[in-house]
């Protein structure tokens, strides 16, 4: 063989592991370069530990409502440390499993930072390896606005997962996926939470119904929502707590921790992309075509680094399709991103697929789009003190009423959405949903009975 490997992936996260797995299944000799832990962001400091914390928060909410269902509970307390310990043991098992799985597939794991020497050569920890095909899948890291004075006093989502004791009072800065997810976990588990956002509603870009319903629910849950708050400075004061000061002089005091959740940047510096002539975009992404080709003959990029939706299943699908195109004669397999379902594990969760109402009206013309909505209190809260609303919206287009967007906020949205995403992917009409017999009693039945 001319090269050491048929394919090397730089980055052993969702994208990198999926491309080497599929390529190895087709008999190709592969290696994956990983500087930290196999599994990448999702497994170690993303989806998986987040979902464990979300389950913990879910249990806290069930305990809160238990007396209304007749339970006489004597809960002695909650141990954050125990939950974190259990979570990390679980994750360690996944890391170990990945190691064994790579070995079984015959994939070499090259531990260390990978950098390009030339288009076919990677250097890892002082050693050089060559490959016919190289796939860049380095993902990203949480961003911190360096220009903010005292910014380093704040944690990021990585720091959140490193917390072994529960802070009493936190400020979460941001209003995207990570901000609402972490704020919800803290709040449900008993931390006093302030959410500091530059806008009045969370989740910019999502359908307004979701933004309004979730913002209201977060406030009702006890989260202090600080609107139009632009952070100017973080300051450690004499009692050891952190004070956050806004550009217009507001001062919020007494935080044990402050968490930045203001987006992520891709990890490009270690790659030495200049050695292969790949120029990142001004958004810090690597531009790819519909085949995930970078423009350099044998180099591809997949996952978060491409600027495509930063979601694990998108990275996995990109990796698998790339291997299918390269090694299984299926050049037609390309990522279809027109209806990517996504769930935000907030409290309550959000599930959304397709176009928000405002985007659909922009795309198809205001009067060609119709929406159906339903807002109700699910039966689960019929007689509980805490009541959490569910809101649903169907966005349909044209005389046939093709469903181009489904938006759900409320209990069960996380599990409800996947099936409905199939309908949107298949270009279903509203009449197809209506023709489906409802499941009763459920919240999901509203989506097939809307008038
Ligand atoms: C807190 C949080 C929660 C999330 N929750 C969800 C969720 O619920 N659902 C969902 O779908 N998505 C979620 N995501 C997003 C998801 O984790 C990412 O979209 C996904 O991990 C991207 O995969 P990737 O392969 O592009 O990169 P990563 O998974 O980030 O993997 C990249 C790997 O490459 C390594 N690496 C980087 N550069 C080099 C180098 N030069 N040499 C060697 N190794 C290198 C890194 O150490 C890393 O392990 C979450 C993200 C975060 C931060
Ligand atoms: N459930 C999931 O699937 C899930 C969960 C977490 C993360 N993710 C992925 O990871 C990505 C990154 O998440 P994220 O929440 O960090 O980013 P995000 O892009 O979702 O949200 C960042 C938010 O921070 C705000 N912001 C930026 N700078 C700010 C500043 N200086 N002060 C205050 N607010 C500021 C932005 O306006 C934006 O609303 C997501 O876009 C998503 O694709 C997915």
Automatic annotation (TrEMBL):
Gene Ontology annotations of biological process type: cell redox homeostasis; cellular response to oxidative stress; glutathione metabolic process
Keyword 4Fe-4S: no
Annotated GO MF terms: flavin adenine dinucleotide binding; glutathione-disulfide reductase (NADPH) activity; NADP binding
Active-site residues, Swiss-Prot/TrEMBL: 440 (proton acceptor)
Residues involved in FAD binding: 51, 114, 304
Binding note for cofactor: Binds 1 FAD per subunit.
A Pfam family matched in the record: Pyr_redox_2
Annotated ranges, domain FAD/NAD(P)-binding: 5-319
EC id: 1.8.1.7
Top-level taxon of origin: Bacteria
Keywords of this entry: Disulfide bond, FAD, Flavoprotein, NAD, Nucleotide-binding, Oxidoreductase, Redox-active center
Disulphide linkage map: 42-47
Enzyme class of the recorded protein, top EC level: oxidoreductase
GO cellular component terms, semicolon-separated: cytosol
Necessary cofactors: FAD
Domain Pyridine nucleotide-disulphide oxidoreductase dimerisation positions: 340-450
Residues annotated to bind NAD(+): 174-181, 263
Family: Belongs to the class-I pyridine nucleotide-disulfide oxidoreductase family.
PANTHER family: GLUTATHIONE REDUCTASE
Record text on subunit structure and interactions: Homodimer.
This protein's name: Glutathione reductase
């Amino acid at each position: 063989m001319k090269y050491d490997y048929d394919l090397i992936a730089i980055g052993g996260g969702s994208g990198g592991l999926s491309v080497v797995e599929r390529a190895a299944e087709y008999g190709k000799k592969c290696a994956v370069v990983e500087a930290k832990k196999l599994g990448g962001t999702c497994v170690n400091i993303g989806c998986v530990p987040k979902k464990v914390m979300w389950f913990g928060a879910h249990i806290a909410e069930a305990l809160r409502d238990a007396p209304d269902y007749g339970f006489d509970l004597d809960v002695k307390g909650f141990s954050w440390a125990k939950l974190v310990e259990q979570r990390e043991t679980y994750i360690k098992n996944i890391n170990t499993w990945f190691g064994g799985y790579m070995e079984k597939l015959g994939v070499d794991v090259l531990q260390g930072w990978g950098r390009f020497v030339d288009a076919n050569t990677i250097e890892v920890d002082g050693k050089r390896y060559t490959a016919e095909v190289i796939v860049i899948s380095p993902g990203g890291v949480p961003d911190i606005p360096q220009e903010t004075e005292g910014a380093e006093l704040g944690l990021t989502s990585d720091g959140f997962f490193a917390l072994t004791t529960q802070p009493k009072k936190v400020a979460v800065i941001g209003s995207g996926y990570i901000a609402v997810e972490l704020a919800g976990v803290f709040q449900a588990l008993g931390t006093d939470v302030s959410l500091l956002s530059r806008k009045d509603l969370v989740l910019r870009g999502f359908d307004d119904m979701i933004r309004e319903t979730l913002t209201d629910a977060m406030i009702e849950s006890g989260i202090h929502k600080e609107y139009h708050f632009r952070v100017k400075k973080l300051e450690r004061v004499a009692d050891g707590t952190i004070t956050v000061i806004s550009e217009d002089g507001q001062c919020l005091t007494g935080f044990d921790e402050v968490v930045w959740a203001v987006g992520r940047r891709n990890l490009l510096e270690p790659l030495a992309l200049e050695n292969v002539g790949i120029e990142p975009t001004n958004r810090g992404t690597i531009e790819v075509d519909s085949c995930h080709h970078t423009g350099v003959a044998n180099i591809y990029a997949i996952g978060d680094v491409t600027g495509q939706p930063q979601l694990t299943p998108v990275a996995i699908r990109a990796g698998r399709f790339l291997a299918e195109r390269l090694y299984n004669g299926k050049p037609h397999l390309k990522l279809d991103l027109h209806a990517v379902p996504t769930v935000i594990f907030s409290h309550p969760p959000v599930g959304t697929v397709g176009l928000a109402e405002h985007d659909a009206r922009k795309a198809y013309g205001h009067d060609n789009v119709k929406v159906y909505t339903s807002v109700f209190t699910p039966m689960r809260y019929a007689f509980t003190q805490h009541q959490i609303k569910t809101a649903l919206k169907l966005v349909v287009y044209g005389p046939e009423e093709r469903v181009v967007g489904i938006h759900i906020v409320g209990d069960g949205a996380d599990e409800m959405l996947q099936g409905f995403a199939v309908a949107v992917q298949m270009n279903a009409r509203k009449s197809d949903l209506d023709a489906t017999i409802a499941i009763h009693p459920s919240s999901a039945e509203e989506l097939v009975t809307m008038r």
